[in-house]
Amino acid sequence: MRKIYMAGMSHKVAEIAVREKFYIPMDVKTEALGHSPFDELLILATCNRTEVYVASDREIAEAELVQYVCRLAGQKFEDFAKFFYFKAGDDVAHHVMNVCAGLDSVAVGEDQILHQIGRAYETAHSLHATGNSLNKLFQGAIHTTKRIKTETNLSKLSCNIPFLAMKQVQRTFDDLENRSVYIVGLGEMGSLMLKYVQEYTTNIFASSRTFANAEKFADVLTPVKLEDRYKVLGKCDVVVLCSICQEPLITKDEFENALSASHSEPFGKLRAGSAASGAIESKRLIIDLGSPRNAEASIGEIPGVQYVCVDDLEKIVSENRRLRMVELEAAQKILKEGLDEFLQWYRMDEVSKDIRVHADRMVATANEESEKLLRSMPDLPENERERIRMMYERFAKKMANDYLYKVKAGNSPEDVKVFLKCLEASDE
Coil, helix or strand for 411? Predict the structure, then answer.
């Protein structure tokens, strides 16, 4: 039976300073999926986790898979092996179901991980990197998660990473109406952050890798070219960084220079092109949602600057924790149903192969018996001989269906294995 394995690291076992080293660019991921050394492969990389899933007809050792992940990220196995977890068989299925449903996330029940897993699966599947085992596993996890979203209120009560970031903003500034916010990166996370910010202020600036992408939101914000980011950084009260980059977009030295320059150009409640109307407080909040981080963490050492990364958001306690626990119980029940369904299929997959062997053996035996009969009737016309062969073969297939496939459909994998062993014993 093809066995499933996974190795990875998440926010539960490694700080962001470690996790960001395992950012895997899309071109590296695509190359790996297109030239996989495993029978099946899927790579999941988010700001909170990097995980590699494989299915293989041979045994995969923990060290082999962890070394593979380290090579993808260009890191030394000896330096980072201690941060990895490794799972095999049923434990992989249980882990995938929990991760996909958001039950393993910083914000329990959050929706974003479902989209990220969906994209990871679609990418691997489109490159023919997945097969029967990983297809069934991830399709089942996605389907089960969608059931949880529709049959419980967990996602309505949950808080995703941008939601937690907004909570941090509100804790830092009581009134956002007179504050300016600058969002760098308008992908899935940045766009969601924008929705939250819009509820509290209209004084919003944003940059994207592609300026045209920022311009799409020009009706609700002021687009800024990424190369002009420092002109805005020093003047905004809140900066939310959620871009994808391998080198920091914001350095301490350049940010200090931007702050110094802003002292002579007070910003206040302004949009681009407006006139200044007086100085504001020098307090700045920088929220870095990137992995790798978009800014040098040392900017938090600048007086008046508060730097918050993804790991810091985990310390925020949600007000609706009690209600979520009630919904969590319902979600876990659905999760167990999805897990049991996959494990039933997973265990039956091996049984199915054994049943096919027995079925093929029954047909082969029927063919042998028909040929014995036909040898005793050498004068029988060929069309009659063929009819006899077909009758024997159909009878064998009917017997296989009644005594093999129906047994499989109505019993557990363990009971079917016992039944097959009895058949083997009777043949001896």
Answer: coil
